[in-house]
Amino acid sequence: MTATSFLQRALLLAALIFVLNCQRSSGGDPIDFERDVQPVLTRFGCNSGPCHGKQRGQNGFQLSLRGFDSDFDYAALTHEALSRRVVLTRPEQSLLLKKATGELPHGGGVRLEPGGAEVALLKEWILQGAARAVPGTPGLERIEVNPKAYRFLDETTQELKVTAHYADGSTRDVTSLAAFQSSESAVVGVDESGTVKPGGVIGEAAVVARYQGKFAIFEAAVPLPGEVDDAYYQQLPRSNFIDELVWNGLERLELKASEPAPEHKFLRRAYIDIIGRMPTSAEARAYLDDTSPSKREYLVDHLLNSPEYAEHWANKWADLLRPNPYRVGIKTTLNYDLWIRESFRKNKPYDQFVYELITAQGSTFRDGNVTLYRDRRSPDELTTIVSQLFLGIRLECAKCHHHPNEVFGQEDFYQFAAYFAKVGRKGTGLSPPISGSEEFVFASDKGEVRHPLTDEVLEPKPLFGEARTAEPNEDLRVPLAEWMTSKENPFFAQTMANRIWADLMGRGLVEPVDDLRATNPAVNAPLLTALGQEFSEQGYDIKKLIRRIVLSDAYALSSVPNERNVVDTRSYSRRYRQRLRAEVLLDSIARITGVPESFSAMPPESEARELWTHRISSLFLDAYGRPDPNQDPPCERMEEPTVVQTLHLMNSEQLFQKVTSDKGQAKELAASERPPAELVEEMYLSIYSRRPSPEELQTAIKLFENEGADRRRLTEDFMWALMNTPEFVFKD
Amino acid sequence: MNVLKNCQGVTRRRCLQLGLGTALGAGFADLLRLRSEAASPVAGGRVVAKSCILIWLDGGPTHYETFDPKPAAPTEIRGEFFPIDTAVPGAQFSEHMRQLAKMADKLAIIRSIRHEQGNHGAGNHYMMTGAPPRIPVGCGAFVSFHPSYGSVTAHHRGHQNGLPAYFSMPSMTRSGGPNFLGAQFAPFVVPNDPNSSSFRVRDVALPSGLDGERFDHRRDLRSLVDQLPRFEERAAGDPVLALDEYYQQGYNLIASEDAQLAFDIHAEKDEVRERYGRNSFGQRALLARRLVEAGVPFITLNEGGWDHHRDLFSTCKKRLPEVDNTVATLISDLEERGMLDETLVVVLGEFGRTPKINKDAGRDHWSNAMSVLMAGGRTPGGTIVGATDPQGYSAVDRVLSPENFASTIYSKLGIDPDSVLYSAQGRPAHLVSDPTPIAELMG
């Protein structure tokens, strides 16, 4: 039976009942609360986040978010508010109907048409006695969307059909009751009725159809109109498997790749990406003048082996883990930072890094990794951070309600949290704002996690797959860490691979980078799978994965678009420009100007990427963005330029002083005997990582040779000017 | 390109062009004022406040010794100070709020906000964002679960005249950040002391030692060496285009002498500077007024040192008269300039303080009662909202929540407290969960 005919029948029935002024039990199809009534509440948004679904409800009436808790909703409708919401004796007086149809003033406006099928259905349900459940009603097993995929070759639209499958094998068309959402509305949009339409942007996207806590996915591809010859893709270079998969992705969308970037751009990217600063003029000169055909491999290995690699990559991880020293204490924060840095200095395999974090025990004064457990104290706090950071699974929502786009519910959340039930702590806990004392974390035999609604004590259970049960007296976190870092757990490798890819390529295959789920698909799923596999096969060696990506041809493409990829902003057909990280800019400026930055709570000549806490004050780092330790959890960094950054680069006292310092590089250059051409070349190399073009050189030399030109002042201004252009501020 | 639009649908760049096109003739500040009048935010047909100056007394200022004296309470509660009459018959302030008492008919005092967040981290969050912290937070915590008033205002209004929309001086308050709204709505922090003779607003004035001629020269040089190609096609999403726009704004700001004047506190007459008080706080309040004149919609003054667990009376004897003088001067000055109706002034901290004076002659944290001052922005003067019990233990009459307070601020600024914001991940968040403003203050 289709939904329409079902509803029509219900309507007819209801009408009939009214005409006959019949008794309660109508004899019609029994109406089930979960199967029939709740979908209407969901479809019309009654239980959505901004309405009655929010934490405290709306105007005293609260439903569970998107109907995940049927018992709660049933009680809210039938027992609360003096049972005025559902009036069994006079169904038409029910607030449920009078409010939703606008007969009584309703903050949410008119949601249901007074004469519509839904109203008839609800009325019939009440008339039948507003039962919680009709005995024998089969449960909903899954939903299916058809078609499952479509390639939008022109402006056509696609109608989706959603079918519900019940336990007894019966099906029902629930398209009109399903909710739809596009993962990328710029690529394809979807309306309430399930009609999918290209949104004007080229790419791939998923449309999620949701019905009663189940979802199904429709995959849409919107290629660029026109076709590219297969031969084009075959002749593209392939340094490794990454290229093959990126080009395949381009082929699906009929996109062409940009040209390879000039050598100096590769040089600059590699330095910035691997060690977090620009090459010096000497380094740039040496590389650009090197004629060896394998100089890229050599450079990448050289950078990966440099101690600067560890400082830069540890700084990225510190972003994610670093606590607020006001909360956990200075020594503890410092120890954590040291532990993270040490891990990167040793190139600790990533699975070991995570294993050591998860199973950490010992003293906060000696064992840096223990800080995780000082900072995150309750099993539920640990659950959210651990699942999001290492598995790309966001469970924060599941803590309180079933996530609308996820398969995880409250039970999953608290069963996972049960792994952290027996984390013991001794010593002095948090005592902000100093929190200076020592604390010990150990595997205790006490502690439990209970389901917040049923109060049942929960046994630990992984989010999916199998994990071994802990031995008696064994630390519960050991089987957890084994399960997390197991090669059978694709989320583990893929989440980290995606982070690394996003850092190097300017955009994650999945965005946000720590939100991996079927309803938020990767732009190139085969590539994500392959990167995860590679990472896992190479023993979770971060350096090896970086090397693989940096030496791919896809990494070395130019940012300059062509006719067949100018519209692409997500398939890696060209390089996407990225504003540099705050630390990269500041450390580069210190080298270029020859005047180191000075930080409090750090040794002299320390660099920004070496800071052990974001609380060390720096106007520059604040302007260019760093995680806010005040925010919990610390947010990702913002990459977009702001007017504040521009003003800072343009006018900051500190930068002006660096450029004009008597101990600075500009003064030294100006005071030297070197001819203007050399000065200019030196500055281009240190700031742009390239030599000036002949025209640029001529123009600059003329300035220096102008009558009355003040050599030092001109050098300073030249340096300032180069550092204030996008060529400096962006990774191109 | 991501061109943000302000609420009137005019892009920032266009605003700036409009402004500077005529700035040559008229004074910049005047012109900004004219323009912001043309673009007066209107909510429900009612003109609302254009700007808010929020004075945050960090630590939790005592309600007994400010606006809620309890002369009838026993000595160990009453404290050392005496109540004084105010311009509002029947309403009394504590003795050091002398000037504010005289102008009480221009002020509203809320005596009945209460909440349950009795530590600094949580109390700051609640009063600075209108949302309680989602998880228990420690006293020393600096947390953010929800955007602050200033960030929401910046988000709602956009950059005004190329200036940052949200200033915080001399530092950001604990929970004064943008949270999920993103870094571009973080406060522009001016740490320098405007009471110093070398004060300048960082980055919007030329660095000392750089003259205008050299600045122009550098600007020319910059355009000479800036050879990176731009991808003008919108679909290409080139972030460099946004940077270009910001450089243009930055240049315009620097190039306009009148705009510079708006930040130049030294241009104020000595007598005005004296009147505000020759201390950092006084001069920051004066600078806040100048920023309001330049069109900045939200300015927070984060004034530390109000956590009087000990020696409350000796400290208050010195500090209260300063605050009294500066706040009274700010309100009078705004009124004399015809700006009070469009400028909301708010003075508060995270909570009030304990009734019983402790062994160190201090009072401890107490979130059952607090006093908040509000003036301007068409707040009806002479209003005392609610009351605490005769001993000041708790708000008992017309009990209000931080949500009511937040909704009042937003409503006055023309921002619907009932609106829903979305995080980058699409999670909806109500701006204020109880969007009911305090009716007595809405005018």
SSE inventory with pairings:
The complex is a heterodimer of chains A (732) and B (443).
Chain A: H1 3-20, H2 33-43, H3 70-78, H4 95-100, H5 117-127, E1 140-146, E2 149-151, E3 158-159, E4 161-166, E5 171-173, E6 179-182, E7 188-190, E8 195-198, E9 203-211, E10 214-222, H6 230-234, H7 241-252, H8 263-275, H9 281-289, H10 295-304, H11 307-321, H12 325-328, H13 330-345, H14 350-358, E11 362-363, H15 371-375, H16 379-391, H17 396-400, H18 410-417, E12 423-427, E13 439-443, H19 477-485, H20 490-505, H21 525-537, H22 542-550, E14 578-579, H23 582-593, H24 619-624, H25 643-651, H26 653-660, H27 665-671, H28 676-688, H29 694-705, H30 711-723, H31 726-729, E15 730-731
Helix pairs in contact in A: 1-5, 2-5, 7-21, 8-10, 9-28, 11-13, 14-19, 16-18, 20-21, 20-22, 26-30, 27-30, 28-29, 28-30
Chain B: H1 12-23, H2 28-38, E1 42-43, E2 46-47, E3 51-57, H3 75-78, E4 83-85, E5 92-94, H4 98-102, E6 107-110, H5 120-129, H6 149-157, E7 166-169, E8 188-189, H7 212-225, H8 240-255, H9 257-263, H10 270-276, H11 280-293, E9 298-303, H12 312-336, E10 343-348, E11 352-353, E12 365-366, E13 372-376, E14 383-385, E15 387-388, E16 395-397, H13 402-412, E17 420-422, E18 428-430
Parallel strand pairs in B: 3-9, 3-10, 6-14, 7-8, 7-9
Antiparallel strand pairs in B: 1-2, 4-5, 6-13, 10-13, 11-12, 15-16, 17-18
Observed structural traits:
heterodimer; A: 732 residues; alpha+beta; Immunoglobulin-like; 4-stranded mixed beta sheet; 3-stranded antiparallel beta sheet; 9% strand; globular; B: 443 residues; alpha/beta; Alkaline Phosphatase, subunit A; 8-stranded mixed beta sheet; two-stranded antiparallel ribbon; 13 helices; disordered N terminus
